[in-house]
């Protein structure tokens, strides 16, 4: 009985990892595209480089950090709600 209770947690972790990787990749590409459209320049490949201004490096770090975290939160909460809904429906069928 303990194994059955732990299985959904393992499944949820796998689903969360796959969703995290996918949304992270898409979010990063979208943020890079947006950065280029707004600034007219490619995103800094190496924000630590002294060739990049401090303002640009910090701005890019803030935009990327906030964008990635917001994407992670939205994706995780959306999938968690769907997972809970699915579990309730599946539990009701047994």
From TrEMBL:
<keyword id="KW-0812">Transmembrane</keyword>
<keyword id="KW-1133">Transmembrane helix</keyword>
<keyword id="KW-0472">Membrane</keyword>
<protein>
    <submittedName>
        <fullName>Uncharacterized protein DUF4235</fullName>
    </submittedName>
</protein>
<feature type="transmembrane region" description="Helical">
    <location>
        <begin position="12"/>
        <end position="31"/>
    </location>
</feature>
<dbReference type="Pfam" id="PF14019">
    <property type="entry name" value="DUF4235"/>
</dbReference>
<dbReference type="InterPro" id="IPR025329">
    <property type="entry name" value="DUF4235"/>
</dbReference>
């Amino acid at each position: 009985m303990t194994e059955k209770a732990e299985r959904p947690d393992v499944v949820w972790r796998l689903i969360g990892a796959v969703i995290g990787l996918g949304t992270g990749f898409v979010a990063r590409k979208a943020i890079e595209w947006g950065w280029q459209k707004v600034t007219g320049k490619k995103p800094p490949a190496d924000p630590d480089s002294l060739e990049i201004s401090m303002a640009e490096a910090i701005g890019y770090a803030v935009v990327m950090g906030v964008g990635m975290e917001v994407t992670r939160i939205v994706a995780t909460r959306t999938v968690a709600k769907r997972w809970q809904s699915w579990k309730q429906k599946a539990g009701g069928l047994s």
